[in-house]
């Protein structure tokens, strides 16, 4: 098959890129594998981690958690609805009517 | 992550328990999809070939195609997708407020039922790209549960309607608009599951895909694009055949700290399904925010072609096309399933015209990358895809970064291909691809994440690509015939505007598509010659379907300009960088078409249900 | 009243001074109106025959009529009236926000210009009957002033646009929405005057008609329907030939105290003009409020057929059809000018299908009442019109009054005929009338007048008339052929819904009309036989036009359901008495059609500009 | 001509009606001419003038005057615009730019 041994080739490329990274800005091409599937390379002049740099957006932890909260709440509500439906054959959307 | 793991286990258990009825309903829909009288899912069939076997309308008589009847949905904005046709009934969907209509094809002047949900209008404010909707799913019913029409609402609901009455059968919450989540996608039925994705990566929404049991409304599984592997749903043998794609831990490792929680990777495009492999296919979308400087890493598993087991949702493979996207090349585009002889070997493949300007062919069993051809040679961010590593080899000149305005990047953020479908003629073995010929300037900026607010961080100016007429703002579209075996484009034509909605092909050697400026066109699919066109009321961002009813072949299409390319028109914007760069690219559009919304059915000489003049007439009862 | 008297004098002076250029422009438009390639005013010609001389499309081939092209206006709500066609250009109007589009008939896929006024959205709240607009006027230009397209805006403006560029040439205020005044009417050009009426009698608006000089935008004259004679503009010889109609002082005397100031009598219907007599004709509308108990008296000059001198606007005659209206039988309907041999004598007449259920024929020089026939024998508020007195002989059983619910009154407040036009075949000498077959219950209530607020004072429940199917809410329409010489209806057919928009006839022995449920139909005008129909995207409240372009005859029509009958659909109302009683009457409509808005051109076999497939295609410049 | 002498006939009808008005409710048919064109007749049990009766809507004088005020203001503005146009050939809608 065509794909056999790709991982080895990829690692070869990776080794090579790592070597050239800090040496020459011109060699930057955005790709430099640390491991299979983890090949991102910061652009010349840009940090590898943005925390504490001028690019740190300083997101609020609370904001970052909001999506999961919303999803968990929906999942709970949906579970109640489906449970009621399985029992009664009637779909009641309004959760307040199920509690 | 407890909830997810538990669900995972119960999903498997359930899959094992109820395996046989699953298979029955599955086969029924598959079988129905192959009848000329039906169009039961967005792609026509599970393999998403968007192809009609009919030859009644063909290259020799297509010039006699005329409107047979039409139906306005009562709503403006972009009318994406195409209706369903099942057992003599047509089911028509529309953008927000997502009304659904059932029309009897024997007399489409009477609406059999209509479902008009009341939604929180705030949903409109968190939709990134007009308030579009891409279509419906159908589940054929068994003895106990009636046939269902399944729909999404912009406000995040997935709703199952009794297909005969339009009454709500169940209704679940999939997305929450208060945190920027919406649904624009057509849901998808495989076995007894309704599969649905997510929208909102432009608001930092972490993408997910979910499956609900059509009979109970209960969620069977849900998997994310980013984060811990337990959330992403990786099968034990994930990428075992292509370990260089990456395997464990990357949904967190390729992000800085918590960035994966607001990292996008929504999936709002199309699904395809292989009933033999029991695997389904789709792409996850762009990482959030667009500003790449704000998210160091490969940002897995955004921008990924997924092959997942339908029963558990677990991923057998995932191939990330654009690691660490810098251009919003969201990877959600259509997957078309075919068999191709590639390098002398017959393979079950999927072909995917990606937004990043490359059309990929993968073995759909293993995920092996078989081909990666530029959709147009003007794509310049990438030199080529390294077939050994699967990695795009970038041209740093067209990379983007803070403090820099990148110029003449091709494709633009809108991609060389976006939400449009792609058709495939199995006889000719060619794909017909509607293409956006668009490039852009791009300039990022910083911003903090606030749940429910736009989280883009880039200004974009799109415009026609080098083959178009940038001054006049036209020449932003192409249609091409692609041969996946050779990687050749057998023909290619320019269009005034992006071919946004995609194509439908028929065995009559025809390829049909709608244009943003409001034509439906038919070309000879063998050579691209224009054979017929009709001026629709409004531009089309949908795609044609074909069905045979009472012995007559119809071609139909949604009209109603909108979607991302027409946000300037829909929301009356003028700044060229508004609408995430679309306004400038399509400023000419308003001189060709205005909003509208509806469906038109065409047939040879316009024959149809009203040839019998008594159909739809008032019959006095005395 | 000083302003009015002064204006009166200056108007006369001006008319005398500039008589000759007036006549020239006048003749030019008159001449243009008679060319098959043009449709220069709502009625086609000054005599408002809504008739096409063409015979290319005729009874033998009309079944081959197919859509040639279409254009969505980008707006929903009722699309009343019909476009204008002038020198190969089509001018399309629409409801609020009253956008206007110029389309080149050689390539209607490009919008030559568009005028999109910004209006105060509050205008929508004071429109009684959906935010409709009935059309445009055209003035052909002279050496100094360019050809003008003249339009009304719902917010009360009258605007003249350069017909070549769409740029505003002048823009005047005619009505003020803060006191409930709006404009929905098509303005009218006679000589160098743009004549325009007023809307808002449901808000107590005192009706008026005004004329503006097309070259300067200056008001030339303005006359009211009620109040002092100086305001009403009575010529010295007013009603001298029919003094029993009433003459001096009645605009005040037939009202209690100041009631005439809020007494309605708006005119929002159509005008016709006799270039030889230099007289124009229109009807003033209902008195306000609808509650008759609140306005003792004959309420002159509401409900009146006016014959006025175009130069001064002064009334030569006024005939009040429904003195002291008790049913909202607003008298604004169309006036069709013909010559008829009546009682052995050739007369220049006007024929007027009134809302009150009677079709009137008057000598248009003298105002003499020549005929008054019931549009349908089910009209029951009136026994007959006394031809000697001109007065309707009422049946008190169907009168209305405070504290009483009147039942089964026919016609309903919507009339047996409303804003629709009426066509006339001069060869056959028959009129083709779209009819509402509607009756009602009516119950008045008291309320004080507040400027800018609804001032109706009656609850109404409309429903299909006795020949319809009241249970199912269908059978509310008729089409009839009327012979004014004999007073006979030569044929009559029932329709599912009111034929709201009116009819257009052609020398091909055809009569065309749109239906509320979305058909355009063609009947043999000699016998009523249905010969062809097409299902439009949405119901039509407009009427067809015909024109010949590049040797092909087209029939076109506006679609987009709305207006009074569809307020339930447009505003999503359910209470049957809502929408001034229309919601109940048309509750079935929503099961047949949804909102939309646009224009479709039909031709034999759909031939048209895009037969040349290169028209509208992108031409790469390399 | 058909219409000759109508006025006389009308007056005849009028005289008759007036006589029968207060005499018999059944004779009411809504029409009873005081003079040509002034034939309204109150319904049995309803007043001829509503002022001071229970049907008096007691409209405010100010409200009744508002329409005329609005119209006169528009006429003044329009006159200014047209005047400016005649002088300059340019239509200026915004009155504040003309004053
Ligand atoms: O990332 C997302 O969640 C998301 C959602 C949508 C959508 O739901 O319509 C679009 C996009 N992204 C997007 O990137 C995009 O180009 C796009 C085009 C359109 C359209 O309908 O025209 N929608 C969307
Ligand atoms: O009295 C008025 O000023 C006035 C205005 C209008 C209008 O402007 O549309 C209508 C009416 N009345 C009216 O009585 C009526 O039946 C009506 C129907 C319609 C329509 O467009 O369907 N408009 C109007
Ligand atoms: Ca996106
Ligand atoms: Ca009215």
Automatic annotation (TrEMBL), chains A, D:
<comment type="subunit">
    <text>Heterotetramer composed of 2 alpha and 2 beta subunits.</text>
</comment>
<dbReference type="GO" id="GO:0015946">
    <property type="term" value="P:methanol oxidation"/>
</dbReference>
<keyword id="KW-0560">Oxidoreductase</keyword>
<dbReference type="GO" id="GO:0052933">
    <property type="term" value="F:alcohol dehydrogenase (cytochrome c(L)) activity"/>
</dbReference>
<feature type="signal peptide">
    <location>
        <begin position="1"/>
        <end position="27"/>
    </location>
</feature>
<dbReference type="GO" id="GO:0004022">
    <property type="term" value="F:alcohol dehydrogenase (NAD+) activity"/>
</dbReference>
<dbReference type="Pfam" id="PF02315">
    <property type="entry name" value="MDH"/>
</dbReference>
<comment type="similarity">
    <text>Belongs to the methanol dehydrogenase subunit 2 family.</text>
</comment>
<feature type="disulfide bond">
    <location>
        <begin position="33"/>
        <end position="39"/>
    </location>
</feature>
<keyword id="KW-1015">Disulfide bond</keyword>
<dbReference type="InterPro" id="IPR003420">
    <property type="entry name" value="Meth_DH_bsu"/>
</dbReference>
<comment type="function">
    <text>Catalyzes the oxidation of primary alcohols including methanol.</text>
</comment>
<dbReference type="InterPro" id="IPR036557">
    <property type="entry name" value="Meth_DH_bsu_sf"/>
</dbReference>
<keyword id="KW-0485">Methanol utilization</keyword>
<keyword id="KW-0732">Signal</keyword>
<protein>
    <recommendedName>
        <fullName>Methanol dehydrogenase [cytochrome c] subunit 2</fullName>
        <ecNumber>1.1.2.7</ecNumber>
    </recommendedName>
</protein>
TrEMBL record, chains B, C:
<dbReference type="Pfam" id="PF01011">
    <property type="entry name" value="PQQ"/>
</dbReference>
<protein>
    <submittedName>
        <fullName>Methanol dehydrogenase (Cytochrome c) subunit 1</fullName>
        <ecNumber>1.1.2.7</ecNumber>
    </submittedName>
</protein>
<feature type="binding site">
    <location>
        <position position="80"/>
    </location>
    <ligand>
        <name>pyrroloquinoline quinone</name>
    </ligand>
</feature>
<feature type="binding site">
    <location>
        <position position="202"/>
    </location>
    <ligand>
        <name>Ca(2+)</name>
    </ligand>
</feature>
<keyword id="KW-0560">Oxidoreductase</keyword>
<keyword id="KW-0732">Signal</keyword>
<keyword id="KW-0634">PQQ</keyword>
<dbReference type="InterPro" id="IPR002372">
    <property type="entry name" value="PQQ_rpt_dom"/>
</dbReference>
<keyword id="KW-0106">Calcium</keyword>
<feature type="binding site">
    <location>
        <position position="328"/>
    </location>
    <ligand>
        <name>Ca(2+)</name>
    </ligand>
</feature>
<feature type="domain" description="Pyrrolo-quinoline quinone repeat">
    <location>
        <begin position="39"/>
        <end position="368"/>
    </location>
</feature>
<feature type="domain" description="Pyrrolo-quinoline quinone repeat">
    <location>
        <begin position="500"/>
        <end position="555"/>
    </location>
</feature>
<dbReference type="InterPro" id="IPR011047">
    <property type="entry name" value="Quinoprotein_ADH-like_sf"/>
</dbReference>
<keyword id="KW-1015">Disulfide bond</keyword>
<dbReference type="GO" id="GO:0005509">
    <property type="term" value="F:calcium ion binding"/>
</dbReference>
<dbReference type="InterPro" id="IPR018391">
    <property type="entry name" value="PQQ_b-propeller_rpt"/>
</dbReference>
<dbReference type="GO" id="GO:0016020">
    <property type="term" value="C:membrane"/>
</dbReference>
<dbReference type="GO" id="GO:0052933">
    <property type="term" value="F:alcohol dehydrogenase (cytochrome c(L)) activity"/>
</dbReference>
<feature type="signal peptide">
    <location>
        <begin position="1"/>
        <end position="25"/>
    </location>
</feature>
<dbReference type="GO" id="GO:0020037">
    <property type="term" value="F:heme binding"/>
</dbReference>
<feature type="binding site">
    <location>
        <begin position="200"/>
        <end position="201"/>
    </location>
    <ligand>
        <name>pyrroloquinoline quinone</name>
    </ligand>
</feature>
<feature type="binding site">
    <location>
        <position position="286"/>
    </location>
    <ligand>
        <name>Ca(2+)</name>
    </ligand>
</feature>
């Amino acid at each position: 098959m065509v794909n056999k041994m790709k991982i080895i080739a990829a690692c070869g490329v990776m080794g090579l890129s790592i070597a050239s990274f800090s040496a020459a800005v011109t060699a930057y091409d955005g790709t430099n594998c640390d491991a299979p599937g983890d090949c991102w390379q910061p652009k010349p002049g840009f940090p590898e981690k943005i925390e504490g740099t001028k690019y740190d957006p300083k997101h609020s932890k609370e904001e970052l958690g909001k999506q999961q909260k919303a999803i968990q709440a929906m999942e709970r509500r949906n579970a109640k609805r489906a449970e009621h439906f399985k029992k009664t054959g009637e779909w009641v959307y309004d959760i307040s009517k199920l509690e | 992550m407890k909830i997810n793991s538990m669900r995972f286990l119960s999903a498997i258990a359930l899959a094992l328990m109820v395996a046989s009825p699953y298979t029955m309903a599955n086969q029924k829909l598959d079988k129905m999809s192959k009848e000329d009288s039906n169009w039961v899912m967005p792609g026509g069939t599970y393999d998403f070939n968007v192809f009609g076997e009919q030859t009644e309308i063909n290259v020799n008589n297509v010039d006699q195609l005329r409107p047979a009847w039409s139906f306005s949905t009562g709503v403006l904005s972009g009318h994406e997708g195409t209706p369903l046709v099942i057992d003599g009934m047509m089911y028509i969907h529309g953008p927000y407020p997502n009304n659904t209509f059932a029309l009897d094809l024997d007399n489409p002047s009477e609406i059999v039922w209509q479902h008009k949900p009341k939604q929180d209008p705030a949903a409109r404010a968190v939709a990134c790209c007009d308030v579009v909707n891409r279509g419906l799913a159908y589940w054929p019913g068994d003895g106990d549960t009636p046939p269902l029409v399944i729909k999404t609402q912009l406000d995040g609901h997935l709703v199952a309607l009794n297909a005969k009455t339009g009454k709500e059968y169940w209704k679940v919450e999939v997305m929450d608009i208060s945190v920027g989540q919406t649904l624009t996608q057509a849901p998808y039925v495989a076995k007894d599951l309704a599969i649905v994705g997510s929208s909102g990566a432009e608001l930092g929404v972490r993408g997910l895909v979910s499956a609900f049991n059509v009979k109970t409304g209960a969620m069977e599984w849900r998997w994310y694009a980013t984060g811990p592997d337990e959330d992403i749903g990786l099968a034990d043998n994930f990428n075992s055949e292509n370990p260089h794609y990456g395997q464990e831990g990357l949904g967190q490792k390729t992000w800085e700290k918590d960035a994966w929680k607001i990292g996008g990777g929504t999936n709002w495009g199309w699904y395809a399904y292989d009933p033999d492999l029991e695997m389904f296919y789709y792409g996850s979308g762009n990482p959030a925010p667009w500003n790449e400087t704000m998210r160091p890493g490969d940002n897995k598993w955004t921008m990924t072609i997924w092959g997942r087991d339908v029963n558990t949702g677990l991923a057998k493979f995932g191939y990330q096309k654009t690691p660490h996207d810098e251009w919003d090349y969201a990877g959600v585009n259509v997957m078309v399933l075919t068999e191709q002889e590639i390098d002398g070997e017959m393979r079950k493949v999927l072909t995917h015209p990606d937004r990043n300007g490359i059309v990929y062919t993968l073995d759909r069993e293993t995920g092996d990358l078989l081909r990666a051809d530029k959709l147009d040679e003007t794509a310049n961010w990438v030199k080529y895809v390294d077939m050994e590593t699967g990695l795009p080899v970038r041209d740093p000149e067209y990379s983007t970064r803070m403090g820099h305005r990148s110029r003449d990047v091709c494709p633009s953020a809108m991609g060389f291909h976006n939400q449009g479908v792609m058709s495939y003629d199995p006889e000719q073995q060619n794909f017909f691809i509607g293409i956006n010929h668009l490039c852009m300037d791009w300039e990022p900026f910083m911003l903090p994440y606030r749940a429910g607010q736009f989280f883009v961080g880039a200004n974009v100016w799109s415009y026609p690509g080098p083959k178009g007429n940038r001054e006049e703002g036209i020449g932003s579209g192409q249609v091409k015939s692609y041969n996946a075996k050779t990687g050749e484009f057998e023909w290619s034509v320019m269009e005034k505007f992006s071919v946004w909605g995609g194509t439908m092909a028929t065995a009559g050697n025809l390829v049909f598509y709608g244009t943003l400026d409001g034509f439906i066109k038919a070309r000879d699919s063998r050579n691209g010659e224009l054979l017929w066109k009709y001026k629709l009321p409004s531009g089309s961002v949908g795609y044609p379907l074909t069905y045979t009813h009472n012995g007559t072949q119809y071609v139909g299409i949604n009209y109603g300009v909108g979607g991302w390319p027409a946000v300037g028109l829909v929301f009356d914007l003028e700044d060229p960088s508004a609408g995430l760069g679309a306004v400038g690219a399509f400023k000419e559009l308003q001189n060709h078409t205005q909003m509208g919304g509806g469906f038109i059915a065409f047939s040879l000489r316009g024959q149809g249900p009203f040839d019998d003049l008594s159909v739809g007439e008032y019959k006095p009862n005395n």
